[in-house]
Structures are given as structure tokens and as C-alpha cells.
Structure prediction request, 480 residues.
Amino acid sequence: MGCNVIRKVAVVGGGPAGIASAKYLLAEKHFEVIDIFEQQASTGGVWNYSNYAPSEELTIPQTNPHQPLEEPKWLSATGTVATPSHPVFATPMYDRLESNIPNFLMRHPDDSSLEEQQLFAGRESVLEYLNRYADDVRYLIRFQTQVYDVRRKSDGDCDRWLVCTRDLKLGKVSERLYDAVVVASGHFSVPVLPDIPGIRAWNVAYPGVITHSKYYRKPDGFKDKNVVVVGNSFSGLDIANQISTVSKHPVWNSERSKKPNFQGSEKWKKEMAEIAEFISPADARRALRFVDGQVVSEVDAVVFCTGYYYSFPFLSSLQPPVVVTGERVEHLYQHIFYIDQPSIAFVGMPFKVIPFRTWEGQAAVIARVWSGRLELPGKQEMRAWESDRIADRGAGRNFHDLSRLEDFRYHNEMVDWALQAMSRVNDRIPPKWSERDASARKDIPEIKKAFVDRGDARHLVRSVEELGFDFQDQSMLKVF
Prediction:
């Protein structure tokens, strides 16, 4: 067997991206080994919820993406630390989370059961949906197994990938060689918490007041508190909205730019500029100064909803490195292939996307390239793609940003690429997005606002038509 023939594949991560990858790899009927390594005790990835939220472990400020692998908390089936039975990792999932994507766009193309849930499904429904979706590849998954290192190793005349894993329950360390590795472990582990003037001294004087949305679970702990929420992403606004049900009003929402309103009237919120300074405790009591000069004092809680770094400690041996600043994954072609060694591929790096189908488009391309049905361009052309992307979007956070329908265009391009492979009977391929889908995608903020405005009655809403939207109407279509 030649050195360039890929038969054995490791998939790091058993969440939505990893499961999609495994399904498309299996569909090729080419690979001899497909092993999925998942450090949690179940599928679902970031959608797994636990009360475990060790905010005391948060480094303030947090500006370094190069952090060690997370250590699990061992909990019993009843959620206590006594007689532990499975490892739990802190995820950004919070108790009352509802998706910010309508069910008919969020679902996998070959499983419409999510549309039986409320229009913007709750976290429990999404997790159940993902667990069912993983059933046909569950036999490939090694649960409670953490990948701690991936590196090149000589195997006779060939170089392959040595994947080093640790069985978290037994403590057993294992090593195995693979021809290729899919990195589908997500990027919601290392929080971004900026180094704002005065934040260090402020945190020492008022420990526990500053936190990050990764550790938010329920609003109860904010009762009657004066709260500042930093960031106005969908999740940031949702968390602020939940906190407002028990906190003092207004909730001060510090934001860089104005975002579409999807939380109703938001009378509980006061929009503020960026934080310029955490005022010294010697000069004021728990006070913040904003860039426009306004000051808010007697602050009881500051919640940073400022996102996450890309961080892959198990890939630290790669040269050139894939993580430098943590704002993007470096040396990738089409957000997927590691240019210097394309037998490593990433699924799930773009953000501001409709995730499940986007991951399927990426997985379809990977499977066909590695099975030999598609060819990658030369390294010079792949590097040129990355350079062009940097010239257009910058070398920072915006590199993987596929907002404003770019995710739809990107997905359709991935499908077109996958379709260049010679078709076969029962070929697995995700459908393209349609104009109707694109119209709904553009109107998600308005749809979500109409949904939220229904109050508790929103739980009965299953379709956009019930909210007065009709994307079958040609006048509403917005070509992308």
C-alpha cells in the first residue's frame, strides 16, 4: 500500500462535526478503520449540559490561547461527586438556552424530526436529536477517551499520524497510527477575556464578580444585582435577557457595534459603549468607565460574552503551527485542510453559520479527497487561497466569519466540489441551500423576535408561517 493511500482515519470529537465526518467517511466504503474519540460520556458535543461551572478556574484576563487540555470533573449519575461514574467538562451550554436557528434550517437534511419541536428548539430537544442522529455510528466511538497528542511518526518508509489517547476512567494510555486525522473537537474551550486597564486589580479586590458566559448556567445567582454584560452576540443578548428577569434594571450591555434586536422591546437593557477602564478600588467602589466617559458604579457582576479562542493543545507538534494568536486556525485551505499535511483536516471552524449542514458539506469533501475521488490543488494554490482570504477578511477573528449568507455560498461551493467526484449508487451528498432557505436565513433576527414576543406561547410555535412569514411567496425571496 502506498504512503499516500488513506485507509485508517481518526476523528477527534464525537459532537455534531465528528458525527457528520464519520457518516461521510463510512459512505465512501473505502476506509478500513474509522475511530471516533470523544472525551465526554455521550455524543452531542457542546450541547451537553451540566451544572458544573468552575468559574474560579477562569484566568482574568484570559489572552493566551495556548492552554492545557481540560481536566474533567467526575460526577455520579445523580450529579454528585460521590461514587463518580462519568467525566464532565464545562461547556457553554446553559439551562434555558433555545437555539437561535429555526428548526427547518438547523436540522440535518436526512432527519426532519427536529421540526416536530418548537421553532427555535430548546437545548434538551437538540441534544436528543443529536444523540439519535449519532446512533448509526455509535459503534465507532470510544467514549471517555481524550486525545492528548497527535504527531507525525515514521512507519517504515511512510510517515503517519501517531494519535495518543488516555482512557479517562481507567487512566490507560494508548497509541495508534493513522493515515489521516479529522479534528472535530470544537472551539468553545478557552474563553476570551480581554486585558482592559484596571481589570487585574479590580478582580483581586472583588473576586468572583467578573465571569465569562462559559460559566453561566441560570439567572438565579443575579437576583437583585447590578449587572454589566459585555458583548451583544445572540447568546450574549439571550443571557442578558435571562438575567434581567431577576436582576436590577437596567442591565448594562456593553457593545462594540449595534446588532439586530431579537429580544422584544428590551426595555430592561441600556446599551453602553465599550469598557475603557475598571476604575481602581481606591478611587471608586466597583465602578467601570466606558469609552464615551460614562461611569457605572456599585457593579455586582460583570459577565463577558466575548467568545473563545481556537485552541488545540494536542496539535502542538505541528509545524507550522495551526494556532498562534488563537483568533483563527492558520495554514488551512477552505477552512478545512492543513496545507502542509492535508491528511489532517478540520471540521467546524467557521462561525456565524448554520452549523450542521455546513459540517456535512465539509465532511463530504474530506471523505472524497481522502478516498481518492477528488484531488486537492497544489500547495501553492492552497496557500494563495489563504492569502486571498487574509487580504479580504484580515488575519484575525474575521477569517472564519461566514456571516451575511457567506455560509450558504460556502456550503453550496463545497457541495459543487464534492459533486465533481464520479457519482456512485447511493452516494451520500448534502443538498444545497435554496433561495427560500436563504430568505429565511436573512430574516432570522426578525423571526426570532416574533417568536420571543409570543412569551410562553412560543413553545407551541412549530413553523415560521405561524408567525406570519411565508417564504414560499416569491416576493419574499432574496437571491444570494
In short: The chain is about 20% helix and 20% strand. Residues 220 and 246 are 7 Å apart (CA to CA). The longest strand covers residues 145-155. The first helix runs from residue 16 to 27.
